[in-house]
From TrEMBL:
Keywords: Cytoplasm, Phosphoprotein, Ubl conjugation. It is found in: Cytoplasm, Cytosol. It holds the Pfam family ACT_7. Functions as an intracellular arginine sensor within the amino acid-sensing branch of the TORC1 signaling pathway. As a homodimer or a heterodimer with CASTOR2, binds and inhibits the GATOR subcomplex GATOR2 and thereby mTORC1. Binding of arginine to CASTOR1 allosterically disrupts the interaction of CASTOR1-containing dimers with GATOR2 which can in turn activate mTORC1 and the TORC1 signaling pathway. This is Cytosolic arginine sensor for mTORC1 subunit 1. One of its GO terms (biological process) is negative regulation of TORC1 signaling. InterPro entries: ACT-like_dom_sf, CASTOR1_ACT-like, CASTOR_ACT_dom, CASTOR_fam, CASTOR_mTORC1. The gene is Castor1. The lineage of its organism: Eukaryota, Metazoa, Chordata, Craniata, Vertebrata. SUPFAM superfamilies: ACT-like (SSF55021).
Amino acid sequence: ELPPSEFMQVADSTWLVLSVVSNGRAPSGSQATGVTKIARSVIAPLAEHHVSVLMLSTYQTDFILVRERDLPVVIHTLAGEFDIYREESGESVPVSCDDVSNGFLKPKPATSRTLHPVQSPQTRFCVLTVAPDTLPAIATMLIDVLFYSHSPPREADASSQDLDSITFFAFSLIEGYISIVMDAETQKRFPSDLLLTSSSGELWRMVRIGGQPLGFDECGIVAQIAEPLAAADISAYYISTFNFDHALVPEDGIAEVIQLLQQRQDSGR
């Protein structure tokens, strides 16, 4: 319904959303959350079969977006590990590999994946939610933060941007559930009694993937971060955007995360 505009870029693919439900079968003793939970069972296999994904972690759960044309590959790849359902008129209908006939499995590429540089600003972030009935009380503040509080990035030196601090604000509204990621300073502008966080109230640090816009065709970008964090059992929220990917990890674990990712970068050279 948005009118065409020279100022709006639209990716030429249609994407489908995968929601992974664990059924309570998470490995015993594992406390990791976010993308780490599904790294081995979903993210890594899709990367190996050359499927590009977008990842969206929210306060409530995690979603994986795959291109509609890759659906046959996705189903063939995940059917051995998961029961797969599609939603039709609000009902969950089982899907099998035999139901997919509009494509073939892609051959695995012979080339190795590109390991993108990672950067970690000093900014501290909060992962929050808001009760839907209290949203009107902070609507004016949300609009101000989203559209008026920050100057646009300078195009000329975006790739060499100083990442001591970073402007990042993510708002999602999915099936009535609200999820917000904001920096700790911005949080102070909101009424504290309306923003809900986990009982521990932890702060998060960000790892931004890519020195320049990543595009949508490359596979393995999410896996580059998710696999080593899963191996170390480190929780992470992951948010793909139009230009870059971002992983949020607990503040007290950022040094270990940077070390793990640097080791992976060095071993890939």
